[in-house]
Amino acid sequence: MKERILKFLDIEKISPSKFADEIGIQRSSISHILSGRNNPSLEVIQKILTRFSYLNAEWLITGKGEMFKPERHPTIFDNLINNKEPFNKTSELTSTSDNDNKLDKADQKLNQKVLTESIANMTVNASQKNIKQIIVLYDDGTASVYKVQ
Question: Among candidates 87, 51, 82, 53, which has minimal Cα distance to 70?
Answer without folding.
Answer: 53
